[in-house]
Amino acid sequence: MVRAIAHFYRGDDESCRQSIGAIQPESAPARLVPAIRAMLGGKAGAPLTAVAAALVSRAGGNPAALRRALEALDHSFASENDDRILRAIRVALQECRQNSPGLVERLKQHILVRSMMGGLEKNDVTSAMGGAPGDDAYYYRLFARGMEETGNPEDLAVACGVWDDFRKHAVWEGWFAPSGAEAAMLYLHMASVLRKIPGELLREIQRFARPQKKGVCEDLYFLFPERLYERACALDPHSETFSQWMEWATWQSAWQGRGVAEAWHKIGPRDR
C-alpha cells in the first residue's frame, strides 16, 4: 500500500495498479484499494463508503482527467481562440471541482491572470469560471508578474500598481512587516520595472493617472521612481540601495544626482 501511494503521487499509474493488485483481499490495507482505483480513473470494484469517497475527493480524485483538462486549456491559450479558451476553462474548472476541490481557488487565480495577459475580457473569463477568485497576496503577486512578462510598457506601469496591492495584502496577511527589508526590496523592484518604460511614455502615464477631480487624493507613488527609491532608502539605508537610486538620478539630471548624493552622505558619510 505504501508503494502504491508513492507511485500514485509520482504519476506512475501502472506501477500503482500493480502494487494494489498484490494486496491480499483479507488484509486491512485492502479497504483502501477501491478508493485508489477510483483515483486512478478506473472502476472502484466495490461501492465506495462515505469515508472512501471523502478520501478520493481530498486526495485528488482522478488526477489523469484533471491533467488532460489542464493540458487542453494550455493548448487553447496557444490557439488564441477566445471561444475555445472559454470552453476549456469551463471543463478545467469542472474537473478541478470534482477531483481536486482544494485547488479550485488557486486554479481560478492562475486562469484569470493568464487570460488577462492574453487580452480576454475579464467578465467573460469570470463567467466561464463560475465566479471570480479571491484577491489575496498570492493572486496579486501572480498578476504583477504576469503583467511584467507581457513586455508591454503600459502593462509594466499596471504591474507596479498591482505590486502595491500585493504589498498591502502581504503585510495584512503577515508575509512581511510594512517597514522591513522585504518592503524595501519590493520598492527597488518596482523602480526597476518603471525604468523599462520609455521616459516620455512614463511621464504621460503619470499625468493621466493623476486624479482629475479636485479634492481627490490618491497616492500614486508607485509610478514615480524617485519616490520608490526614497522609500527603499528610508527603510534600508544600505550603500547598495543608495547606489541604485544614485545611478537612476544621475541619468535624469545633475540636480537630482546632487540631491541623492547629499541624502546619501547624510545617512552614510563614510560611503564612497
Index terms:
272 residues, mainly alpha, Serine Threonine Protein Phosphatase 5, Tetratricopeptide repeat
Structure description:
This protein has 272 residues and is mainly α. It folds into three domains: 2-60, no CATH class; 62-134, no CATH class; 135-272, Serine Threonine Protein Phosphatase 5, Tetratricopeptide repeat. It contains 15 helices and no strands. The protein is elongated, with a radius of gyration of 26 Å. The model has no long low-confidence stretch (mean pLDDT 87).
Topology:
Layout: H1 2-10, H2 13-21, H3 33-39, H4 50-59, H5 63-79, H6 82-99, H7 104-117, H8 122-129, H9 137-150, H10 153-173, H11 181-194, H12 199-209, H13 225-235, H14 239-252, H15 254-267
**What amount of the residues lies in strands?**
under 5%
CATH architecture of the largest domain: Alpha Horseshoe
Number of strands: 0
> Which CATH C-level class of the largest domain is it?
Mainly Alpha
Work out the helix count.
15
Gap between N and C termini: 65 Å
CATH-assigned fold name of the largest domain:
Serine Threonine Protein Phosphatase 5, Tetratricopeptide repeat
Radius of gyration equals: 26 Å
Bin the helical content.
over 70%
Q: State the order of secondary-structure elements, H for helix, E for strand.
A: HHHHHHHHHHHHHHH
Shape: elongated
Mean of pLDDT: 87
